[in-house]
Amino acid sequence: MSAHWPLTLYSQEIRLQPLRLRDRSRWYSVRLENKEWLSPWEATLPQVNHESPESALPSFWQMLRSHNREARSGRSFAFMMWNGDNLIGQITMGGVIYGAFRGAHIGYWIDKAYANRGFTTQAVELVTAFGFGELGLHRLEISMRPENTASIKVAEKSGYIFEGVRPRYLHIDGAWRDHLCYVKENPAVN
To answer: Which of 41, 53, 77, 94 keeps 20 to 30 A from 171, CA to CA?
Structure first.
């Protein structure tokens, strides 16, 4: 792996950069304003061994430390999406596996006020180029609920191809939900 963390990626309209401690109030504000908008698509923690799922959620500081530790180890890269001075979302390339698989998955969310303006597609394209170019990954996946037509459009506009359905794939909005899987392969990795 040749990536050095922290790392910033740029397009004409957005910048992707790691979460910083000084972003705390903006992050909380955007998340709070978009709670209802994001809840149908957000990962939730299933109850295991009679634990309360909410008790397992990390603090902002723990999340920041985890993001940086995972990126430095090459396992996951979480970027905040910025349009000028506006925090507009987040994109993560996680589950990075090297060796014979050389793949990862991408997940994202965007502020409702910035949806349907091409920003998420730009972010996916930046992260895809990073994964293929810098990390030399062979395969990237994006999975979304079948009802999430906006996310399907992002995957398709970014050149990802529908691969199949994953029944009960992720715990989303309080239940195990089916997902569609879209895939893009790196033509430079044989």
So the answer is: 77
The domain limits of the chain are: 9-43+59-185
Segments of the chain assigned E as strands: 9-10, 15-17, 77-83, 86-97, 103-110, 139-144, 161-172, 175-185
**Greatest pairwise CA separation for the chain in angstroms:** 48
Buried b (16+ CB within 10 A) or exposed e, 70-105: bbeeebbbbbbbbbeeebbbbbbbeebeeeeebbbb
> How does pLDDT run along the chain (190 residues), one tens digit per residue?
446 899 999 999 999 999 999 999 999 999 999 999 999 999 888 877 766 555 566 788 999 999 999 999 999 999 999 999 999 999 999 999 999 999 999 999 999 999 999 999 999 999 999 999 999 999 999 999 999 999 999 999 999 999 999 999 999 999 999 999 999 999 998 8
The class that CATH gives domain 9-43+59-185 is: alpha beta
Peptide linkage before 6 cis (omega within 30 of 0)? yes
Rounded CA gap, 1 and 87, in Å? 28
